[in-house]
Amino acid sequence: MKNITVLGSTGSIGINTLEVIQHHPDKFRAFALTANSNVAQMTEQCIKYKPEFAVMADEQSATSLANAIKQDAPDVKVLSGTDALCEVASHIEVDQVMAAIVGAAGLLPTLAAAQKGKRILLANKESLVMSGRIFMDTVSQNNAELLPIDSEHNAIFQSMPMNFANGLDQVGVDKILLTASGGPFRTTPLDELVNMTPEQACKHPNWVMGRKISVDSATMMNKGLEVIEACWLFHSSPDIIDVVIHPQSVIHSLVSYIDGSVLAQLGNPDMRTPIAYGMSWPDRIESGVKRLDLFDIASLYFEAPDEARFPCLKLAKEAMQAGGTNGAILNAANEVAVSKFLNQQIRFTDIAKVIEQVLEIMTAKEADSLENILEDDQLARQCASEVIRKLAA
Ligand code: NAD
Ligand code: MG
């Protein structure tokens, strides 16, 4: 029996993870569940899964949760705050940690799991974008296992030889082809992008996801973050990563080799596939996902990304090339801009402008300490708020 801590259990990835766990009660158990403030949903999850621990971000939500479950799930220990998140991510009884908190809030608990050598099922790409080098070093120094859950990185992992960590040139890889759906605005006339609403941006053609990553998909910052994520996960240079627009999201990414072979992973767009793979690797288990019907699909389409339409993609690649805390700055500016857009305080096309200005204004530091990274995360948030105030004036 594998004990799993699900960080962000009330989110889109968290819910899919619980579905896979529910499919295999003989193999997996939800040991700890965590959420930001959704007490109603956490109450249901606690009653259904009876975890050892439930953690809410703040004390008030934790008190409400403890009251709500005292009849039906009295044995669940309810905690709150970042220290508690780190505690349940690194608990001695935990085998696997699903890192599915959205944004920078996921960094410390995910690192705590790495420090204790857990198997990390990594959905929270922001933690790698912020602290790639420290994160990867912590994983290797503590013999943690890092299984990518982001569908593209899971596909790349499945298409790589086991010993890819020796270096991509050692194993004959010449390109990583990272697929992207192009999001909801792939064909929207350029002059209409400025008027796109949060509701339109969150209507992804193929995936149902949280609101932040949905907006990231609409700006293609999501793909930019994923280029950075792939560089760290696969010890790759950004130069050998090509973004390929594939609007159907059937091929989840590909690896091209020097002998002309191209290996890919395909499947219906359903996150339970990469989640089940990460949980069971190197074995495979039933995930509940509908099988792919190639006759139904009949043909597959590809096109090159348009950087004029998607400036965030270029900003992310430049931040990776520039190194240091630029990843953390890019990520923080993006989190602030997306949240302001979702609250209808800035326009869709302002998101890229805010990030570009923050990267221009700030001077990045070395990303060799968590202090530097967290400091620049905070400074970039303040800088982004300032830039947005000026935009509005
Ligand atoms: P979501 O918004 O649906 O869920 C986020 C979860 O994090 C919720 O449980 C929420 O309660 C929790 N949370 C939010 N802020 C928090 C805070 N400050 N402290 C503690 N907990 C907090 O998001 P999602 O779509 O499930 O995405 C989660 C992560 O997975 C993101 O990093 C995203 O980029 C990544 N990811 C998601 C998908 C997908 O299909 N949804 C695919 C690939 C990668
Ligand atoms: Mg992805």
Could you name the key traits of this structure?
single chain; 393 residues; alpha/beta; Rossmann fold; Rna Polymerase Sigma Factor, Chain: A; 3 domains; seven-stranded parallel beta sheet; four-stranded mixed beta sheet; 11 strands; globular; binds nicotinamide-adenine-dinucleotide; binds magnesium ion
Strand order of the largest sheet: 4-3-2-1-5-6-7
Low-confidence stretches: none
CATH topology of the largest domain: Rossmann fold
CATH architecture of the largest domain: 3-Layer(aba) Sandwich
C-alpha end-to-end distance:
58 Å
* Ligands, ions, cofactors: nicotinamide-adenine-dinucleotide, magnesium ion
Content of β-strand: 15-25%
Structural class: alpha/beta
Q: What is the CATH C level class of the largest domain, in words? A: Alpha Beta
Number of helices: 16
Count of extended strands: 11
Radius of gyration: 20 Å
- Mean pLDDT over the full residue set: 97
Q: Sketch the major β-sheet.
A: 7 strands, parallel
Proportion of helical residues: 40-55%
Following the backbone from N to C, one meets helices and strands in this order, namely EHEHEHEHEHEHEHEHHHEEEHHHHHH
Shape: globular
CATH superfamily of the largest domain: NAD(P)-binding Rossmann-like Domain
Domain module count: 3
Oligomeric state as shown: single chain
